[in-house]
Write a structure and sequence with these properties.
- This protein is mainly alpha-helical and about 100 residues long.
- The chain folds into two domains: about 1-25 and about 35-60; about 65-95.
- It contains three helices and no strands.
- It has helices spanning about 5-20, 35-55, 65-90.
- The longest helix is centred in the last third of the chain and has 24 residues, at about 65-90.
- It is elongated.
Length: about 100
């Protein structure tokens, strides 16, 4: 399935309208925000985009190699953070 730039633009616009998306803006003063809150917003937006990509792609989609590599790298990076936090937050672990 090949998407043209115009059809992709229309699909994104339609999805945003359907979900009545809210743009979460970063505060001007970084001190006004907790790092955890900012990271949770980043993760929220990542999950929304990942879900949209998942829904956009057909099972037989043939993506360019650089696109496949980016998705694989992003997955590995999120997985590494997840594994680290699971290890750090395991029962009985004392954080330094």
């Amino acid at each position: 399935m090949k998407l043209t730039r115009k059809s992709l633009k229309n699909l994104i616009s339609e999805t945003i309208r359907e979900q009545n998306s809210l743009l979460l803006e970063m505060p001007e003063n970084r001190d006004e925000q907790n790092e955890g809150d900012a990271l949770k917003k980043e993760l929220f937006h990542m999950s929304q985009k990942a879900q949209q990509l998942h829904d956009m792609l057909a099972d037989e989609a043939d993506l360019e190699p650089w696109v496949q590599a980016k998705i694989t790298k992003a997955s590995a990076m999120v997985g590494a953070v997840f594994d680290h936090l699971m290890y750090e937050n395991r029962p009985g672990h004392v954080q330094e």
